[in-house]
Design brief:
This is Nucleoside-diphosphate sugar epimerase. The protein is of the alpha/beta class and 266 residues long. 35% of the residues lie in helices and 16% in strands. α3 (69-82) links the parallel β3 (57-60) and β4.
């Protein structure tokens, strides 16, 4: 039986990865700031050695757009080397090397740390999760007019499908950088916003607003998209039907983590 530790194991993605791995018969340790018995703050690393003792594979889902990912990864990798962990699996984001966003740069830096760690490693990049897109649009829809960035599209993917892929990769040997995983459709942000409004029974005009800056140019160029890797099955409308109550104007059970994956432990 393989012993697998999942960082951020109580978060949007991590909890689903934990469930899949346990269903497959693996012994799984859940690491986050508050999950006993492996309550660890990766930013200081206290308790990591005990958490990693006897672990074969680490699935690193913990991340925060507020910062600290690089430091957390250094602590995790150092402890994994001390514990002779055989496989480090990291979930990253499509476009971290093409869109000049601070959080993306941090994710790319963690990819490099994994590659240079001396451990067996695998990196999977995925596009944004449906729940992040819904959270963004829900915030925009609080105004009488929904303002969306002009010329920007997205390709959201079902988080449960990404969890399934991670569980598959965790049970396999290290594979390096594996093919990206993206949702089934490239959709304009205008279209996604209108889909959300229909699902919530709201009536709002949607106005496209041009922005400025390198990050906006990277998004307009589609640096965060992977149309050639549209392997996801679940659509945004299916996500909305499952999680958004018509007329309530808010997401039901989707959470707010999206593909920022603020899953704790970092």
């Amino acid at each position: 039986m393989t012993t697998i530790l999942v960082t951020g194991g109580t978060g949007t993605l991590g909890r689903l990865v934990v469930a899949r791995l346990r269903a497959d018969g693996h012994e799984v340790r859940v690491l986050s700031r508050h999950a006993q018995p492996y309550a660890v703050n990766l930013l200081d690393g206290a308790g990591l050695d005990a958490a990693l003792a006897g672990v074969d594979t680490v699935v690193h889902c913990a991340s925060s757009p507020r910062g600290g990912d690089e430091r957390a990864a250094r602590n995790l990798i150092a402890a994994a080397r001390r514990a002779d962990v055989a496989h480090l699996l990291y979930i990253s984001i499509v476009g971290v090397d093409r869109v000049p966003l601070g959080y993306y740069r941090a994710k790319l830096a963690v990819e490099r740390q994994a590659e240079q760690s001396g451990l067996g490693w695998t990196v999977l990049r995925a596009t944004q999760f449906h729940d992040l897109v819904a959270t963004l649009v829900r915030g925009l829809a609080r105004l009488p007019v929904v303002l969306v960035p002009a010329g920007v599209s997205d390709q959201p993917v079902e988080v449960a499908e990404v969890a399934d892929r991670l569980a598959e990769l965790a049970a396999a040997p290290p594979a390096g950088r594996v093919p990206d995983m993206a949702g089934p459709e490239v959709r304009t942000f205008t279209d996604l916003a209108r889909a959300y409004l229909r699902a919530t029974g709201r009536r709002r005009p949607v106005l496209r607003v041009p922005l400025a800056g390198r990050t906006y140019r990277g998004l307009r160029a589609g640096g965060h998209l992977a149309p050639d890797r549209a392997v996801g099955k679940g659509t945004f409308e299916e996500y909305l039907a499952r999680t958004v109550g018509v007329g309530r104007g808010r997401a039901g059970t989707g959470g707010t983590g999206g593909h920022t994956k603020a899953d704790g432990g970092a």
